[in-house]
Amino acid sequence: MTNLEIVSSTYEGATAEENGKNLAKYVAADISWTEARGFPYAGTYIGFSAIAENVFSRLGSEWINYKFTPEDYIAADDKVAAYGTYTGTNKKSRKYFEARVAHIWKLKDGKIISFEQFVDSQTVINAM
Question: Within 13 A of 63's CA, how many CA atoms are on the CB side?
Fold first, then answer.
């Protein structure tokens, strides 16, 4: 698979579970995952277990239908950028949000070695 195909497989599966399995399949053991400063899950997490615990489990437990809808991708060498929109409804507040977002992925030898998020965090915080 190309780097673009690997990254797009983490967003465009038939189900969230399929996307998660695709991500797990392609991450390097020491992947560095950075959620944007100001975002509710901000920080840098190393390894898939830390990402699952600090990001995905919280997204699943705190939101209804939280998702990223990619608008397009830009791929060059070992980098892929995906940009689009986050949407979801906070379980506690019942407020819906939409936020523009970009993700920068770096890959090496068919494995994802890093991820960095850029997002309009305020819209997410307002929904919480």
Answer: 23
What is the enclosing helix (H) or strand (E) of 58? helix 57-62
Pairwise CA distance, residues 121 & 82, whole Å: 17
Strands laid side by side in the 63-76 sheet: 43-46, 27-35, 111-119, 96-108, 79-90, 63-76
Q: What was the pLDDT predicted at 15? A: 62
Across the chain, which has 128 residues, the per-10-residue mean pLDDT values are 95 77 93 96 96 90 92 97 96 97 98 97 95
Question: Is residue 88 within 8 Å of residue 2, measured between CB atoms?
Answer: no
Residue with tokens 């399949």: 25
Cβ contact 120:101 at 8 Å: yes
